Amino acid sequence: MPIRLGDLSDEVHKAVFQCLHGHEAAAVAAAGRFVARALGDEDLWKRCAWQEFGPQEGTAKRAGDALHLYRGLHRRGQCLSLRWARVPCQHNLGMRTRSPSVFCSHGFLFVFGGQEPRRETDLHGGPLTMPLVLRRIDIAGAALPSVYDGQVTVLQDDGEPRERSARRRNGASASVRVMVSGGLAAGGSVPHSESDRFGIFEIHISPTGAPRAKWVLAGIMPFPRSGHCATFVPARDRKLTSSKGCVVLTGGSPSHRARCVDMLDLESLYWSSSTPASASGASPPRWRQHSAMYLRSRGRDGTILCCGRSETVGDPDCRWSDRWTACWLEGCGSGAELRSVPAALDVRLSIGGAHVACRLAATDSVLLVGASPPDAPGGGAGGAVGGVVAAAAVRGRLQDVELVGQTVPEDRTFGGCCGLPDGTALFYGGCNDMGRTFDDIWVAHTGPKTDFFLLVQQELSFLTKMQRRVRSLRQNMDDDSSDADVYDDAVPPGSIAPGGASLLAELVADLEASPSEPPPPRGPRTWPSSRGGGGSSSGGSSCEG
Question: The pTM is what?
Answer without folding.
Answer: 0.79
